[in-house]
């Protein structure tokens, strides 16, 4: 499995710099009225392979994000947790971190949501925030968090061992129907 992850990482590196866009199209008049919410599955540079997290919130009348929230699975012990968590599971929590706001994303997959879908998303994220969590580089990583969110939204997901930019591509490909 580690060999597959390294192969996927090597092939994903060349593509990572090319992905700095959302897949959403400007809303039509009908769509804009019914889908005023969104969730972004994003990747960004980070420890070793990069990082996957979500941004979600409301859209203004022009489809621009307002009132955004950030969430990902992060070791509670910061850098030390990342190092130790590369070997064994460490305690973690669901939250946003400064790097999520500051680092330029390497890939973004945006889904527009209705009010009901957004309520479901916030419920799923709230349950994940309230649960006891662990982080491990191979078995309970940031992609696994995104998988839990996506499954809670009824979405299909790729394998968790993909590097974050490739993982976000996989989400897009599996759910753009």
SSE sequence, one letter per element? HHEEEHEHEHEHH
Measured between the Cα atoms of the first and last residue, the distance is: 30 Å
Low-confidence stretches: 1-29
User: How would a textbook summarize the main sheet?
Assistant: 6 strands, antiparallel
Mean pLDDT: 83
Indicate the overall shape: globular
Strand content: 15-25%
Rg from alpha-carbon coordinates? 16 Å
Structural class: alpha+beta
In the sheet with the most strands, the strands line up as 5-1-2-3-4-6
- Residues in helix, %: 40-55%
Total of DSSP H or I helical runs spanning 4+ residues: 7
Total strands = 6
Write up this protein.
The chain has helices spanning 2-16, 29-34, 78-84, 98-102, 115-130, 142-152, 164-175, and strands spanning 37-44, 51-59, 65-75, 90-95, 107-113, 133-135. Helix 5 (115-130) crosses helix 6. Strand 2 (51-59) and strand 3 form a beta hairpin. It is of the alpha+beta class and 177 residues long. The longest helix has 16 residues, at 115-130. It is built from seven helices and six strands; from the N terminus they run H-H-E-E-E-H-E-H-E-H-E-H-H. The protein is 41% helix and 25% strand. It has a six-stranded antiparallel sheet. The protein is globular.
List the main descriptive attributes of the protein structure presented here.
alpha+beta, 7 helices, 41% helix
């Amino acid at each position: 499995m580690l060999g597959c992850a390294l192969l996927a990482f090597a092939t994903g590196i060349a593509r990572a710099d090319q992905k700095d866009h959302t897949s959403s199209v400007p809303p039509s008049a009908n769509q804009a009225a019914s889908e005023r919410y969104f969730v972004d599955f994003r990747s960004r540079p980070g420890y070793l392979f990069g990082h996957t997290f979500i941004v979600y919130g409301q859209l203004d009348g022009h489809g621009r994000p307002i009132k955004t929230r950030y969430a990902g699975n992060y070791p509670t012990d910061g850098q030390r947790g990342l190092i130790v968590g590369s070997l064994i599971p460490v305690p973690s929590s669901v939250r946003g971190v400064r790097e999520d706001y500051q680092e330029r994303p390497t890939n973004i997959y945006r889904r527009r949501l209705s009010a009901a879908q957004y309520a479901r998303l916030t419920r799923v994220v709230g349950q994940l925030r309230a649960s006891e969590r662990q982080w491990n580089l191979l078995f309970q990583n940031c992609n696994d968090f995104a998988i839990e969110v996506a499954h809670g939204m009824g979405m299909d997901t790729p394998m968790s061992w993909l590097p974050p930019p490739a993982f976000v591509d996989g989400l897009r490909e599996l759910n753009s129907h």
